[in-house]
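Case study.
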Amino acid sequence: MSLVANQVGALIQGVAVLDGISATFERNRIYGIIGPNGVGKSTLLHILSGSDAPSSGSVALDGMPLTDMTGKPLARKLAVLQQGGLPPVGFTVREVVAMGRFPHQNWLGGEAEDPESIIAGAIDAMGLTGLQSRKLHQLSGGERQRVALAKLMAQQPEILLLDEPTTYLDIGYQIELLDTVKAWQKRKELLVIAVLHDLNLASLYCDKLIALHKGRIAAEGAPEEVLQPAIIETLYGAKTTLVKHPATGVPQLILQPGTEV
Amino acid sequence: MLLLAVSMIASLSIGSAGLSFGDVWGILIHQLPGMPDPADKWTSGEIAIVTQVRLSRIWLDVMVGACLALAGAGFQGVLRNPLADPYTLGVASGSSVGAAFIILTGMQLALGLWTIPVVAFATGILTLLAVIWLSRTRGVMQIETIILSGVIIQSFLGAFVSLMVSMSQGVVNQILFWIMGSLAHRSWEHVYMMIPFLVLAFPVLLYYSQSLNLFTLGERHASHMGVKVERTKLIVMMVSTLLTAAAVSVSGVIGFVGLVVPHLIRLIVGPDYRLIIPLAGIGGGIFMLWADTLARTVLSPKELPLGVVTALIGAPFFAYLLHRRMKVEGGVKS
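After joint prediction, the assembly is written out as follows.
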């Protein structure tokens, strides 16, 4: 199973945000999309999710154009964790997680197999068992993000797209969320594509990074190939020093102040 | 359901003709096949009041209330706005322009009873499109401004209807009642006219109720879950407008039912549209039944316009919702 972007371009109010993006995403891998603010990372993810159509080029899932696959069939294959998380609605945790089964339901709202164990399993995997009858507006932002992920688990996709999943979370929740995603990815051999702001987190969790700059792919490859201080300076205009993570050996970037201190 | 049945029975027995509970039921039971002719016990006038006037009116109350409450639930769900209803969106006024035009020109006499709801639906849809167009900024429909646009359009069209009425030479009293919303002077044929609208619209709304649940998480969320967002919005709004047009054709503009009832239901059963949709239908029937019973008995034998009664109850509730919404900052409370 693969997701292939072919010469994808996007115009927002007449301005080219993406221009000729081509990339192949394979199963059982985590891809990180990095780049400065406003470079079109989220736009690319919206196009890869099929919710927005590219203004040029195409995206294909297993050879089938995404524009030909909509609604429930697509949602059974591909799930999206949105930027900003779930709104504080009056539904309970369990009800929201159960909504993840929607793409598997027939027009009467029933399913071929009883989904109860899937829903309970997703709630359990996210450590939400004690909170399952609480309403969403009673939860903290971090807890709501766990509910969002549990809902995606209940959706049982093969492809998972994450749009800045760690924004607004403290470092404890950031690590917890990405650990959960990684464990789930390994268990089900998922294809995960995540837009990430934090380069060091991206390096810790991703198998491959794609750096966007001015609407094009500036660099792609393993974290040690992409996270080079020279590349990072072109992307962000910031000076960094590269070190090896003492425990895992992956590259980590340390920031340098712009002026001598 | 039980509450609805009890309300219907109670309302049937209350009225300005001074018939007792026993009289009403005696007449009704005598209508069943095999019972002796009621004519030797009651006058034909009394029989007519029960079977022709009151019974049909009670069914109309229930159906108009159900239509408006279902339409309100549909609009609130699809627009994710708790202040949306046929009245605040201007759809009811839009429908009434078409209906008033047909009534005042007497065209329904030439073209049949169905002319009014069909024309009312057409002008209702046009109004909805105008409201949506007004509330768009840079191609995106603004949830917050749609009510503002609706109220603007509603007052404009309301004035337009008044203008039409003041220029007409018809029976002013009866038309004024229609503008303020009333179910007086209606008969069984109006009941039969409403049945197809409810039978068509209710299953459609029920079918989309789970999609409306996903809408509460946001349109993009819903689309990622496999909901066909644009199609759902279009169909639910069309069906809600159809229900509004049916109600307006029969009763005139009755405000706030579509707003208040879905909220009361939501307070009781929570945010799940799979429960809200059917219960709003029933609740709307009960609400309207009691409002109309009040309207025809409080100043008996004079009759209050039904729209006045619902507005007296509904407007303070609307103000309360608006106030609470301003206090609860951010996010759609559902």
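Observations recorded in class. Residues 44-79 of chain B form the longest helix (36 residues). Chain B has 15 helices and two strands. We will return to this complex in the next lecture.
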